[in-house]
Amino acid sequence: MKKIISIVLIVVLATSVLTGCVGNEKRPSKEVYTQKDNLDFNFSVDPETFTFEVESNGTTEKASEPLEKMKVSNLKDDGDNISWTYAEQNLDIDIEKKDKYVDITVKSNKDEENMFSWPKVKGNGYLLPLNQGKYIPSDDSVWKYYLNEEKMKVIESFSMQFFAVDKDEYSLVYIIKNPYNNEIAFDTKKNIEFTFNHEFPSINQQKEYGFRIYLTKKNPVHVAKTYKNYLIEQGDFKSLKEKAEENNNIEKLYGAPHIYFWDRTVISEENIQWAKLKSSFPDKLKLWIQELLATKVEDGAELAAAYEDLNNYDYVDKYTKNRIVKSLSAVMQLKEFYNTEVFTKEDKEIQKLINKKIDKLNPVELIELNKRLLKSELGNVVDPIEKWADANTIDVIKDMKHSGLANLWIGLDDWQEGFIKPELVIEAENQGYLIGTYDSYHSIHEPGKEQWETAKFKDTSLFEEATVTNKDGRKIEGFQGVGRKLNPTLAMPSVKERVTSILNTGLPFNSWFLDTDGTGEIFDDYSPEHTTTEAEDVQARIKRMEYLQKEWGMVVGTEGGNDFANKTIAFAHGIETPSFSWMDEDMGKNKESNYYVGRYYSSTGGVPELFSKQIPVKDKYKKLFLDSNYTIPLYKLVYNNSVITTYWWGWGTLKIADEIENRMLYEVLYNVPPLYHIDKYEWKKYKDTIINHSKVWSSFSKKAIKEEMTDYKILSDDRLVQMTEYGKSLSVVANFSESEFAVQGEKVPGKSVLIIDGNSKTIYTPEK
After folding, report:
1. What ranges make up the beta strands (E) of 527-643?
2. Where in the sequence is the domain holding 347, given as residue range(s)?
3. Which of 71, 170, 208, 367 is an S-S bond match for 107, by CB 3.0 to 4.6 Å?
């Protein structure tokens, strides 16, 4: 049985004006965006095998390879619509012709678990929204090895909900109508091909999935614009300009490098007169600090030994200074620090804080009390507490501003950094920077056994009563196998409690970074008490992003940036280079390897080795995650002027030793903020590199971020010279090769970019 239906599609106009967009309402963006012509085509379908063919300009291709034959019933052809039933599979199929595409819907007609696999896709190459976007030739040996028997959860692995396949004469674009419960299974026995699988969970009343299928020219620009215009049509796109109308702090992201700032010193080396410390350190205080280190501080025994070294040697070396500074900083964060037998010189400020009761002090007040207590015993051996840690924090922020970094996004590892030095947050905000804390509600640890701060919740019932259960009845493990996954639909009271308690200390954070909320690592929760679908999971994550955005005026960012979050977030970390060190033991575990990324540890209380240590990366990972031969700007072509994207924090601009220049070129070509990890030592080490690059990148990006990415081209046969265009008059040519390349009357040296801004042309060669 073979049923054939044909349609002719109408060509899309070159541009279109669309109106209205308020909050997350389903209204189109009011801005004007580029559209590209979709191709006219006919299609035919064989219901028995669900083989789907398209024909354009005399060339016929399969949009889906045949499945095994199935029994067909209830076949109907109403002209513009064809439908049938697979009774044995409990599925109804509906195909409808539209002006610009074919709309295909697969619906389960039973309440139990069900699964269906369609389409089955083959082609010459694939345009997949893996992070920023990849073009993958079907016969590529590197990708065949990587994708061998690989299964990808689509909403997690794809940054956008579409994929495209290159055929001989044109590309097919598949827009996924239902983003939930989808998986792509790859087969690389011959050339790369894949099957799209959809699960119909028993707990989900949404019993259908499907696609819009379009034909375009073989060009990533046409592919991406087809998807962007679909989003606009659906009211699912919001520009940065529209977001900034609601919160003008978003404009502080324009031309802003992204910096994680690290410092956990309550007092710094410069604040101590080391020559006097030996003779002026009260024995009671010294013994009390050593006791606290041994009983209350992780790895405290090593820090405690510094006090013996202080007594044993005439000269206080750098190593001993570091340990004493770390130890003092650690104990001054403890509520147990106050001891009436040790601290006997209470002034009015100390007494005022003590009268409030130690347990009632907020964290900023607690550290303030402990600083005053230490000062009361050490006297003139240490600086006035108002100057403590300035050299590590405020002085660096001021120098950044004075050096020409007009805009910055500054992220803290957690809010405790702000509690330790509130003046850091205040100074950053005063300088016009965005500054925010990392936060997470993804993992929850067993009460009393929490391994990190974000996995600790005041509501201790959540661990047993609000965590995710899979369909087999087992609790889903938390990050790195520790604890459990917290159901986001039950987390909002804890979100409000935590955020309010942090901000009620007076810290003027104006940005907030939510870990994992944009990664698509979402779940169906089969817990009988709080059954939750993937769709409900996502909506709960969006709700907490909106809470920070609307209730607190935060500029919100997230890890990942997958596009279900696009209307709420302003920036995302991970789209450009994802986390991948877990894929290789040499990177993740083998401390003797040159490829080892480093420990989450700092001897100075500054940037951990994980972020400061420069390493090489094996060639196979360069191919998969860094190589400009494979990367294409699918995400930027859709979201350049909507979501600002950069790297996952573990792969900052300077991390990969032999890729620094390439990454700087990439940052200009793709309008990607540089990402750095800074303390006073890293700032001194890389200041010139950061300033020189930012002068060029920031000036360019302030203009590019306001525009849509309108074009992308490969200019050389080896794909090492590429061009992007923003709006109508701003473009970049990046030469990733070692050789000079001539373009538009200019000779672009190897490892350089040409920036064309109207009639102005600038050649920039990055230097490490």
Report:
1. 555-559, 571-573
2. 269-385
3. 208
